[in-house]
Task: inverse folding
């Protein structure tokens, strides 16, 4: 199609959607406030990049299809790979079984993933990066029915047939719509008041660790402390201490170490108690679930779509954000393939993008509502009750755990859980896990 596209946001979501659009548009301009270099590095516009990231199985599959050989490239740059079932995870209900699942877990830093993707995206001659450029608003036609581009501080108005907003959790799109005289979207919020405090440590790559990552999850209403440790590239551990319901771990070295030592997960303490720190601890908060219902906004201007965290930001503890953004990028490509009428593409995509969020939102919001005082809506209460029941069963039921992971990784329908979740367990076995490697 003869389409000029502008992607606002050059982070993960913006790069993935640029890859999708490059095969369908004559020009794709990626506008980014930062000026990222060719090597991995933290950017001011992605403050969450200092904390753990993971791709669920469905997300990894999509990225491999869009960027063939990406997993091997990450592996070659030191990102470990193993089966997700080797990931010892501690819920308040007990340790998950250590069983093979067929689901790949690859752990890496956010800067490494973005650098690998960015290099491939910018190799496409259809893609033009515009770094160091701040977008100040939308450009619309005289009737305010169509977005015709974006206004920038450095380059004036960039004209486009299609504008994709991929500016992340702190997107300015609601303000831009208001400035253009368009209505604001309905916003759904469920905030578990989660915070991350993360620190890097030196990893002994010659040691034979039987685990690549471990987690102690927070869970409403009673478990407001948790932590995670993941092996990443360059021989490093990334340790993240979690606090929910307003609790936060200290950033000073002694306080950080004491918080880690107080956790029931020994893997976290094994690293913080013995490995060499590689820098200070960094805190990141404001991690609630927030869904801007652009799919319900009327009228919806032609030529505009929004995806990723700018559409819906999810509690990162459950790991859905990057996978959902990749799903939405692919969905936009398929929607473009399905019609030549661009206004119809934008409205149709926005409705369909809302559907990709149904399951991730239900899982995250149903659990996080437990931190909020007051009455929980009946559908969320029922979903939360089911999830809590599943978590109680999982330590003693490896088959149920595999099915639960398939659903969490967005590779299976939640219907696969209903039967075993509602039946009494036929057998019980002693809970395993909880010993250090």
Result:
């Amino acid at each position: 199609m003869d389409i000029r596209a502008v992607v606002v946001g050059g982070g993960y979501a913006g790069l993935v959607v640029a890859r999708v659009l490059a095969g369908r548009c004559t020009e794709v301009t990626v506008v980014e406030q930062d000026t990222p270099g060719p090597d991995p590095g933290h950017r001011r516009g992605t403050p969450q990049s200092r904390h753990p990231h993971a791709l669920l199985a469905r997300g990894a599959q999509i990225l491999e299809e869009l960027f063939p050989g990406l997993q091997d490239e990450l592996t070659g740059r030191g990102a470990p790979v193993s089966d997700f079932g080797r990931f010892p995870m501690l819920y308040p209900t007990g340790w998950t079984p250590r069983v093979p699942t067929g689901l790949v877990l690859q752990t890496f830093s956010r800067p490494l993933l973005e650098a690998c993707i960015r290099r491939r995206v910018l190799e496409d001659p259809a893609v033009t990066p515009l770094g160091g450029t701040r977008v100040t608003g939308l450009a619309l036609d005289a009737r305010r029915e169509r977005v015709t581009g974006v206004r920038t501080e450095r380059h004036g108005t960039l004209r486009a047939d299609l504008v994709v907003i991929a500016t992340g959790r702190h997107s300015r799109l609601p303000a831009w719509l208001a400035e253009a005289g368009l209505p604001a979207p309905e916003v759904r919020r469920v905030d578990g008041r989660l915070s991350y405090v993360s620190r890097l440590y030196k990893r002994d790559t010659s040691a034979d660790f039987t685990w690549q990552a471990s987690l102690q999850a927070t869970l409403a209403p009673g478990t407001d402390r948790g932590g995670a440790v993941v092996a990443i590239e360059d021989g490093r551990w990334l340790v993240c201490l979690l606090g929910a319901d307003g609790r936060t771990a200290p950033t000073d070295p002694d306080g950080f170490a004491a918080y880690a030592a107080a956790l029931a997960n020994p893997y976290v303490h094994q690293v913080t108690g013995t490995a060499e720190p590689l820098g200070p601890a960094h805190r990141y908060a404001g991690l609630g679930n927030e869904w801007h219902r652009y799919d319900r906004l009327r009228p919806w201007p032609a030529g505009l779509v929004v995806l990723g965290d700018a559409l819906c930001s999810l509690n990162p503890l459950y790991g859905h954000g990057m996978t959902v953004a990749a799903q939405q990028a692919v969905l936009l490509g398929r929607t473009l393939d399905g019609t030549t009428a661009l206004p119809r593409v934008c409205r149709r995509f926005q409705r369909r993008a809302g559907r990709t969020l149904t399951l991730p939102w239900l899982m995250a919001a149903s659990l996080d509502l437990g931190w909020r005082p007051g009455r929980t809506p009946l559908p969320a209460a029922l979903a939360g009750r089911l999830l809590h029941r599943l978590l109680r069963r999982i330590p003693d039921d490896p088959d149920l755990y595999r099915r639960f992971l398939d659903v969490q990784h967005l590779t299976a329908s939640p219907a696969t859980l209903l039967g075993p979740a509602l039946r009494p367990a036929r057998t019980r076995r002693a809970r395993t896990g909880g010993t250090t490697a």
About this structure: The radius of gyration is 22 Å. The first helix runs from residue 12 to 22. The first strand starts at residue 4 and ends at 8.
